[in-house]
Amino acid sequence: MRSRRAWLRRAAALCATAAAWPLAVRANELTVGAAAPPLELHTLDGRRLATQDLRGQVVLATFWATWCDPCREELPLVSAYAARHAHDGLVVLGFSLDGADALPKVRQVAATLSFPVGLLGSPWAGGYGRIWRIPVSFVIDREGILRYDGWQARDPVWTQATLDEVLGPLLREAGRYRVQSRMSAS
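Above: the chain's sequence. Below: its structure in token form.
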């Protein structure tokens, strides 16, 4: 009986792994310096924010959950950074992996943040693959190019130093980008 259960567990695990393989392959296709796959956030207040509509902005897409302690530790830091750099063109999109049953908790956390939050709805995030580790984040530059792949990060939790290192150069281009945009509009 035990060996049959063990065999069934192994078979189920193998099937789950095989089913997730195409999703993992997609995430492995992420390339820093190439076009970022599209993402769409359906916010708690009913808005729809798509990365394709945010061209000209630097987008930080962060995936988190209320039950994830490292996520809860980094969210206030990311929120403060987002508030300080909104005028530089930084947009943060917060994708919660919580289920609908945790919506009150998600709303409670979201009320403390300076950026929009929505429920992801499933662990699948399109071209970013299956979100299997959190926190994880991705950065898209003003031209829609992936500049930071959180799957490759040694320590996925944002610190002030990593925010400055990853986002700082992209945000400093704000003045240059505005000048170029005005010149090309003329």
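Helices lie at 2-28, 69-85, 103-110, 160-172, 174-185.
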